[in-house]
Please model this.
Amino acid sequence: MRVYTFTEEPYPEAWIEGADSLRVTLPNKLLDPARAADRYHQYLDQWQMSDELGLDIFVNEHHSTSTCMTASAPLILGMLARTTKRARLLGLGFPIGNRGNPVHVAEELAMIDVISRGRLEMGFVKGVPYEVHPANTNPVQLGERFWEAHDVIMKAMTTHDGPFSWEGKHFQYRNVNIWPRPFQQPHPPVWISCNSVSSVRPVAERGYVLGTVMTGYKAKDLFDEYRAVWAESAHPAPMPLDRLCYAGFLGIGDTQAEGFRRAEMVAQYLRTNAIVGEPFRNPPGYIPSAVGARMVKQTGTMTFQAHHLLAKDGSPLGNFNEAGVEEMIAGGLMFTGTPDQVYDQIVDFFDTMGGFGQLILMTQAGDMSAADATGNIALFAKEVLPRLQELIRTRSREMGLAPEPAVA
Amino acid sequence: MPDALAESGSMIQVAGIATEVVRRGSGRPLLFLHPELGLDPEAPVIDRLAQRFAFVGPSHPGFGHSARPGWLTSVDDLSYFHLDLLDALDLRDVVLVGVGFGGWIAAELAVKCQDRISHLVLANPAGIKTGGPEDRDMQDIFSMSEETLLAASFADPAAWSFDPRTASEDAIHVKLRNRESVTLFAWSPYMYSPNLVHRLHRIRVPSLVLWGTSDDIAPESYGRAFCGHIGGARFEPVEGAGRFVHIEKPDTFAGRIEAFVDG
Model:
């Protein structure tokens, strides 16, 4: 199993009590550039350490927000491509429906792949609703723009005999001919994130890695759909475990108390993530109107937010932005406690999901100090990661799944 | 388009596009191009206008229960669609009326072809850019809460109250669909066509610009500037109404149109 460590590079000094929105409209005068520089260096050090400890690296991007200073995932991955030695570099990722020019995306990602000597994992995301205003892109056409951008990027990465032209609905080019081409052939592994069952099919049909974030036990429905579509597509059986990725949150310590203390800090992310002004939560067209109408009817409000957490047995645990650490554990979002407890929780979640081969863990959030964040990462790498890899090898054999390649 | 909606009874085909149309009354045809809110078939203004005119109120493609083909993505496309509709129904000597977003479409139509139009009435129209890059001609409805939007749009926000707990799923769907479609057409450039202002001089039919003075989305100066680009057009403020005079002051709205056409 590959395990990726993750921070959104928050700037918690600007998480103001009672603010209407930590996104889109929060004035950047609240950011002290010198403090921001310290934080960027702290976060880069954590990823560097992950590389040295046998973990992999996950970076995403958001815009106009104090919850995430990674305004460009390629920029951070470009630095890490040079400074790290072995970790897979996962961007999940690149909001290609919001980026104006997919050819530039293809160029930047090819550079990262070449500089890292083939360590890029290339994740495409539609982006959360609050990315629409900063990107200024039309939310109604986000889905079709996403897939056309995907088509342009894949063609740019796999065309090696000189220029091609593209005259599509959203993008037009007379001369696409990227230099460099990617290090990995025919292209870096592709990931796409999904949080609803209805968007799984095109990902599974292409055999891309499905990543899901903040879904808890609802991830089971997505994974089941992926496995079903995989089975009916022309893919080799059995399906490798590494086609599925789950993203959760980590608070681990030598004692249970220390694990919970760290989990409380990581939980700040879940509690601040959804503080966003009403007009930016559901831009028109982001959710198809027929689906939206059902959700409005169910919730009785035009401004619904879908943040509810379910327990393993399907019972509701409330909204995750208001949940305590115990509920987050019960909802499969947070893995918390001593190394034994964390291991047991992940194994139980793995078995409930029917297996997955890649795991993203948010290891730092909020004002969690560098010492706690590196403690979180180091203890997991030392005490949990080797056992987890052994277990996954065993489970793969038991479940008749294709063996995983050895992790470098 | 949702399947269940295709059976709502007032659907016609316009250039291959299934279109919902409210038709009421007889006499001189009045083509009503609805605003960003869509068209409520029960709106009192329809019966009021139908006392004098043959009221024709289509839902634009993507609004109400009208289909929208994937290629149809601009107000330019919408203006050609409504020219097709005038042809399809063979309407002549038409009083063309557009409110808000519908006023933008009406102006885009009129600069292209006025063969079937006798009079143009625009109420709080959108569609042009009057200021510089840092001037926001119209407040951004896509960055407002529902409550702020209603307060800015109406003299009395209760005129358009909507309770999702009691509304039917179809009514909610239409409301979301209208908002989705106005976003598609008006997101960026926001509520204007860069070249429309340079084409308004082509409008030769008698034109009236009504302006609900409680509109806090666009200022009256915007309406007066719009009017100033149409040769000989008349500007009439309407007190006690915001952006949607036809909803808040239906009698005044219809009366002003009648007087203008008779004048």
